[in-house]
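The data layer described in this paper is built around a simple, fixed record for each protein. We quote a single record here, exactly as it is kept in our systems:
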Amino acid sequence: MAHNARIVVAVSLILAVAIFSELAGVQSANGSMSTNTFDRFVDAEGNIKRPENMLGDPNWVHIGSWAVVNDGGEGNGLHNVYTTKDVVQAYRKTGEFPDGAMLVKQVLSAETDALTTGQAYWAGEPGVWFVMIKDRQNRFPGNALWGNGWGWALFEAANPAKQVATNFRTDCLGCHIPAQQSDWVYIQGYRALTQSD
């Protein structure tokens, strides 16, 4: 009898964990629950770690690209932006980034050549990664890389594990001023957030 009771308890625990996990996934997808971003990519002082192997992780999705093409080639690059599937689902539902949403922009050099279709550009070597993490709770008020509802970080290809920005106001915000009304993000470039096809 005691053996059967232990089996019933074990099965009950397994079912409870499965149900909780399913509910947590639904809450995260609906934007009502912070993702595990702060546990995985942010330490107690607010230092941000760059996610690795995004292209091999099925939870990460490409939401849009930018092509910067200037006469003379100065500053040319291809900017690919990624986030997680739950962030896309939450944004489509609410029109807002949920707490813990992470956006990663990988900037690659732009190679070019005159091909049969015209002047073509394609991605070269990585240069930098920009990372933003949505913070609705103002978790790190004393950290100069957190503010305006986001954590901000910059990583360079020479040492991709080292975050090099020192202050979001001087190192990051200037490029985002035109996107202030859309939560500091250029939403028009991210069709995946607003349309399913």
In short: The radius of gyration is 20 Å. Residues 1-30 form one domain. The chain is about 30% helix and 30% strand.
